[in-house]
Structures are given as C-alpha cells and as structure tokens.
Amino acid sequence: MTPRFAARMARVEPNAIGELLALGADPAIISFGGGYPDPTLFPAEELEAVFSEIIRAPGGLAMQYAPSDGLPRLREQVASLMTADGTPCGAEDVLILQGSQQGLDFAAKMMVNPGDVIVTEDPTFLGARIAFDPSEPAYAAIPMDAEGMRMDILEEVLRETPHARMVYTIPEFQNPTGVTLSVERRRRLIELANAHDLIVLEDTPYRQIRFEGSHLPTLKSMDTEGRVIHLGSFSKVLVPGLRVGWAVASRPLLDKLKLLKVAADTQTSTLNMAAASLFLDRYDLSEHVAKLRAAYRRKKDVMLDAMRRHFPQEVSATDPDGGLFTWATFPDGFDATAFMRDVALPEARVAYVPGGSFFPVTERPNFARFNYSAQSEARIEEGIAALGAALKAHA
Amino acid sequence: MTPRFAARMARVEPNAIGELLALGADPAIISFGGGYPDPTLFPAEELEAVFSEIIRAPGGLAMQYAPSDGLPRLREQVASLMTADGTPCGAEDVLILQGSQQGLDFAAKMMVNPGDVIVTEDPTFLGARIAFDPSEPAYAAIPMDAEGMRMDILEEVLRETPHARMVYTIPEFQNPTGVTLSVERRRRLIELANAHDLIVLEDTPYRQIRFEGSHLPTLKSMDTEGRVIHLGSFSKVLVPGLRVGWAVASRPLLDKLKLLKVAADTQTSTLNMAAASLFLDRYDLSEHVAKLRAAYRRKKDVMLDAMRRHFPQEVSATDPDGGLFTWATFPDGFDATAFMRDVALPEARVAYVPGGSFFPVTERPNFARFNYSAQSEARIEEGIAALGAALKAHA
After folding, report:
1. A128 shares a domain with A57
2. Where do the DSSP E strands lie in chain A?
3. Which terminus of chain A has a lower count of CB atoms within 10 Å, N or C?
4. Sheet with A325-329, edge to edge strand ranges
C-alpha cells in the first residue's frame, strides 16, 4: 500500500456507517438511525411487472452491456423530469450514475487536489465526507439557521479561504437537519460561487418528498456560469436497491464526469436503468410520489408530536417541510453518543444517530438525527415514548 | 477543473470505446468488435423468475439498501464457487463489486501513485488502462508467446524498474489475444512478485468459458504472501447487465478495498446481488456454463475455420482454449485501422477492433481482435468471408 493511500484512508470512518447498519438490522431495537425509506411503500407489483417485461423483451438488450453514460431513453426521461421541475435540460446534459453517491466521489476527484477546501453545511451528510475524503480535502463548515447555510458567514469564510474549490449543499430537507435553503440564499450562493470561482455541488435526494409549500428553484436552474453540478436519485422516490442516480452539469464538466464513469465501473446496471425507464413509461411517478409524501408527512407529524409529549421540554427538534429526518438539540453538556450507548440502546431499546459525526470540523456532542421514514407510526410512538422516559429518568 | 485532473483525463481515450459501441449497434455491419456475450444464451426465463421472487419477498429487502461489502449470502456463494474452483476462501474474503471493472479502478487507486509502474501483458485489455490512467501510472508492457507473458523478459524489466508496483494479468484466454498463462509461468510470476514486492492483479472474466483442457490453478491459489488481488465476474457466465463482480484478497488489502467501495458508490445494486444469489440457489450455474462453453466453442471453430478458408495465407490467428476472442496477425506493413476505415467498414460491412489501442507503450498496426461470441454462426461465416474477399482484393 502506498503511504499516501494509507494517509487518505485513515481519514475515512467506516465504523460509524457499519455500526448504524448493524443497529438497523436488530429487530429488537427500534431504530431511527438509518436513512431507509419505508419498504411497505415500495412499488413492488409495478417493479415485478417492469423487470418481467424488460427481461422478456426480444434481443435481451436489458441484460446486455449498455452505453457508459446511460440508456438514451432514461437520459431523456430524466431530462423531462428535470425540465418539468423547473430545470430545463436535454438528454445530452444527463449522465446516469450508480446512485448519486457516485457523483459525490466523481465531483471531488474532478475538482479537489489535496489541501483544497470543500465548503459544507455544518452539520452535513456523513456519506459525502466519506466520498470526498480520499481526495484529501480540508473542510470549511458553515453554520446553518432555519433558512439553511448562513450566507453572511460563507462570505466571510470565502474571503479568508483562497483554496476553496467547491461548496457542497443539500438544499432541500437537508441531511441531517431537515432544513431547506431559502430562495434568497440560493441566489446569494450562486453570486458567491461566481465571485470566488467555485463549483456548487447540489445534492437533491429528498427534493420530491415535500410535505408543504411549493418547490423552490434548484441551484442548477439559477446557474449563470455553468458552475452547478446537480445530483438526483431514484433511491427515495422508487427504491434504493436500484442504485440509479444522475448528474446534470454543463458540457465541459459533464464530459469529464463521463470519463470518470467509464474508468470507475464502465456503466450502471443495464437491468436497473431499463427498469427505471420502463417504470416511468408505464406508471405515473408523480402519483407514487404523492403517496410517499402523504405517508412520510404523517410519520413526521407522529414523531414530532410524540417528541413534544414525551421528551423533556429543553429538547427541541426541527420541523422539516419534507425529507426523512428531524434534528434534535439537547441541552449543553448532553452527550448523545454516551447516552445512546449507556441508556438508549440497553434500556430504551432505541437507536438514533448521535450528531457528532455530521460535523466536518468541530464535533458537537448535544445533537442527534432521527429518521421517521423507516418505522411504522406505532413504532415511532413507542420508540419516542421509551426514549423520552429514559431521557427524563437520566436527566 | 484542476490542472492535475485535466492532465489525468487527457490520457483517457474514451473515443475508442464509444466508436466500438456505436459500430456494434449498427445492424447493417457484422461486428466482431465488442466483447458482448451471445444474448440468445442469456438465462432469461430463470432471471425473470428470480427477479419476480426477490421483489415479492416479504419485507422488500431486495429493494432496500444493503451492506457495502455485499449481501452476506452472495459473498458466501462466491466463496463456495471459488473454493470449488481450487481457491479456498470464505465469505469474509469476498467483496462484491460493480463488475470486476470496479476492482481495476480500486486496485490502481490503492496501489499506484503518479509515476509508479504498472506491468501488463503486451497487448492488454483497453478497459483496464482506462481504469488505471487516472492514477497516472507509467506502463511496462511484457511481450507474450503461446504460454502468455514472457517471464524471462518480465524478470529483466523488473530488474531495471524500481517503481514497479503491480502486475496486471488476464491469465485465461486473455483479452485481446486469447492466450492462457502456463502453470510454470504462473509459479514464476508469484516468485517474481514476492522478490520485487509487487501486487498481482488477477482478472478472470473468461475463466469459466473453457473449451478444452482442465482449469489451471488461479494465481490467488498460488499466492504465498497475500499479494494477489483476484477479480471475478458474473458478466460472462450470467449476464453483463447485472454488473455484479467480486474481489478476493488478503485481509489488509480487502479492508482497504471495502473503504474504497463505501466511498465510491456505497454498494452494488441490492436487486442485482439478490438476483445473482437466488439464481445460484435455484439453478445449476455449472450446467448453464456448460451450455455456454459448447456454444462458444462451436462459434470459435466456425470463425477459425472461416479464416483459414477465406483469409490470405499470410494472416494468422490464435486458437484460444476458451474465452471470447481470437487475435489476428497481419503481414508487416498492414495497417488494421486504415483497412477497417477504408475497406472493411465501407465495402465488406464488417468491424473488428484494430489492435493498436491494446498496446500500452508502443502501438503496433498489423493486429486485430475478433470476437466470436456475439454473432451467430451464419453471420460469422458471412462476415469472415466478406472480410477475406476484401483482404484479397486489396492486398
């Protein structure tokens, strides 16, 4: 192993992920830990019909090799979805990826040399840092409020950070906080990116899962200089097991992303691209998404209502307009990791994600991420009640 | 874009690949160009049943997220296949990949710093170079004869190449030559790797497609110091559209490969892993592979027989013991690229892969790779006859 590689890899924290997956798998624990969609809402019958049809189709094309940038029909369909969502683009602007996670890896490889600074929200998605870390970036983490990343602080930080290369953001229902970036701040972010020669990496896995209000314009739709790499995914609106996501970017960036795709894995699974494509042809995705929105909204309401009734008054939680997560703030001095290990898991039999690992620069112990999509409404009530009792008993 | 990235990417040659895919798609051309398996041999009925069963299974697990290193049951099954094939290992030694192509990318990322030398066969698989190139290696290409890579020349080259890090080999029915590495040379390769502190990257996509003779031991099974990264794939024995491959390696290497998997794309498609796994449970893979072997052997015989009858006497071609390719040698002064562009495509309506791009260091113009798996026996006869007539007319 090269010494440089060892240094790169030492920065990756796989255990956090592994432990969470392990927790989610223990049926005796009510886990609010993962970011899993509700499997009872998977369109199983439709997918069964779709796989059957693509496998039976004459010529076996869905089982064969396919172009590296994705099946042409699926790229068209993604472009139509994006256009209908207010981000006009064509098939030639779309690259199909192995989940949007692959876009995080590619963006860092493309834009970041060792020591370059990636700017993120504070806190931010752990999986993004895992994808970025092998490129050996430094991080600047920008505090958030109810309107998302604070642009006044970003402006200050950029003034003092000549090596800033890329701003990573989840504008809607952010992971882990559930917060949405306001329209004014989106505008300001684009201005700052233009002024400081930055790439904006826009990650939108939860965008369609909106409970109320109308869709805000994507950063890509506001992009005046071809600086935004937009990432989307079918993981939350269809099923994660497909691993089909996409990037939309300006031609020079997309051309380079395509080269990285050829080098990385040749292509995304033909079967899965063909299945996503035929699903979009045969069924009404927006109708399916409307069902998801209603169900997740009810679950979010059940969780927040249960937190209000069962948690000590000094614990607060965000009320997201969509997505899968709420972010709880505990009093100063509370250690969410220790409490989970010592009390929540052994006594309450409940798991959440302690917030520490979401902070790229300075960990803060008194936060936790709660997922409400994976558990039934009854289990949400039961788990939050048990956790609330444990919090009160040990406060 | 960083200047360093631009330099890296400039070395990648996507057009060669893109053009070949385009040729394979034109039905008016008889293409011996791609490396496609025969779609009429795909186990479509079985895969339809398998997808149906995994999608219907209660809990929706096949559609949900899965562990990064792969579904545990599939890792067990791959370990059993490897063990039965003479390479004893357990599930804990197996990492599931997005096709074995992903293993090529990871191995280079893990082992190669800019300027380090990757040793390959001369010629070698173009897709491997595309995966390696972003790591900015230098190449040393070792001539082959009927027993594969020449170990006497490798020994000489290693003596003069202190920065050699990794030897990449396709030991069985090599792409593009169809040649198999002899047992004696396998032993010698392991000795040289031990003596020179090298990693051996063993790529075995065609291993199961053997027409005659018995399986030779894998390099991994001869590995005395944990230096071999073995890559396998279901692309040729099931279907390429699944994109399911694997790595088997010693624990320290496998642990690092697992970290790269989490960073690169989180996981291979759950649906495709579950489908491969259930196929192995429900059906007899070796029976299916026996059918493939018989069919591809017939096609190989048809192609070589047609070449003997139709090609000018001074053109020779390898007679592989398995796999998908034969490698033709034309007289000195013949330019296979110019002939394809000026004669083979416009007049004979036949495509092959001009050999030049398979040579990592010094291109040689008078070679071509012919694939016999994708076309029917009748089209093989027709295409080789047309090409032979064109060769004779323009000689």
Report:
1. yes
2. 30-31, 94-97, 117-122, 138-145, 148-149, 164-169, 199-203, 228-233, 245-248, 316-317, 325-329, 350-351, 353-354, 367-371
3. C
4. A316-317, A325-329, A367-371, A353-354
CATH of the domain at A103: 3.40.640.10
- DSSP string for A174-191: -TTT-----HHHHHHHHH
Q: For an interface test with A, which of B8, B63, B256 has the most A Cβ atoms less than 10 Å from its Cβ? A: B63
Distance CA B39, CA B239 (A): 8
Nearest by CB to B63, which of A39, A99, A111? A39
Interchain CB distance below 8 Å, A130 and B272: no
Which residue among A217, A251, A282 closes a domain? A282
With an 8 Å Cβ cutoff, are B133 and A59 in contact?
A: no
DSSP state of A342: I
CB atoms < 10 A from the CB of A293, how many?
18
Select from A223, A248, A282 the last residue of a domain: A282
Nearby residues of A75 by Cβ (< 8 Å), 6 or more positions away:
A69, A91, A92, A94, A95, A96, A246
d(CA B370, CA B353): 7
Low-confidence ranges of chain B (pLDDT < 50): 11-15, 17, 21
Nearest-angstrom CA–CA distance, B299 and B178: 14
Contact A262 B61 (CB under 8 A): no
Show residues of chain A in contact with B264, CB under 8 Å: 101-102, 105, 131, 264
Q: Can you tell me whether residue A33 is helix, strand or coil? A: coil
Cα–Cα distance for residue pair A303/A233, rounded to 1 Å: 26
My answer on whether B28 and B143 are in the same domain is: no
Instruction: List the one residue out of B379, B381, B387 whose CA is nearest residue B36.
Output: B379
Residues forming a β-bridge with A203: A231
Phi, psi values for residue B272, rounded to 5°: -70, -35
Q: Which residue among A68, A127, A271 places its CB closest to the CB of B242? A: A271
Domain that holds residue A258: 44-282
* Contact (Cβ atoms closer than 8 angstroms) between residue B190 and residue B223: yes
Q: Which residues of chain A have pLDDT under 50?
A: 11-15, 17, 21
Q: Do B63 and A242 touch (CB under 8 A)?
A: yes
* Cα–Cα distance measured from residue B248 to residue A209, given in angstroms and rounded to the nearest whole number: 40
Q: What is the pLDDT of residue A26?
A: 74
CA distance A119 to chain B (A): 16
Q: Where are the beta strands (DSSP E) in B264-334?
A: 316-317, 325-329
Edge to edge, what strands does the sheet with B117-122 contain? B94-97, B245-248, B228-233, B199-203, B164-169, B117-122, B138-145, B148-149
pLDDT tens for each residue of B134-185: 999 999 999 999 999 999 999 999 999 999 999 999 999 999 999 999 999 9
The token pair at B349 is: 């309506």
> What CA–CA distance (Å, rounded) separates A169 from A362?
18
For B189-239, write each residue's pLDDT tens digit: 999 999 999 999 999 999 999 999 999 999 999 999 999 999 999 999 999
The DSSP secondary structure of B33-52, one letter per residue, reads -S----GGGS-HHHHHHHHH
Between chains, do B34 and A65 touch, taking CB under 8 Å as contact?
Answer: yes
The answer on A92 and A23 residing in a single domain is no
What is the model's pLDDT at position A19? 57
B244: nearest CA partner in chain A: A269
Q: State the pLDDT at residue A165.
A: 97
Number of separate domains in chain A? 2
pLDDT of residue A21: 47
pLDDT of res. B27: 80
The verdict on B246 and B327 lying in the same domain is no
* Helices assigned H by DSSP within A115-266: 126-132, 151-159, 183-196, 251-265
Full-model pTM: 0.94
> Do residue A256 and residue B66 have CB atoms under 8 angstroms apart?
no
Q: Tell me, what's the pLDDT at B65?
A: 95
Coil vs helix vs strand at B369? strand
Indicate whether A261 and A142 sit together in one domain: yes
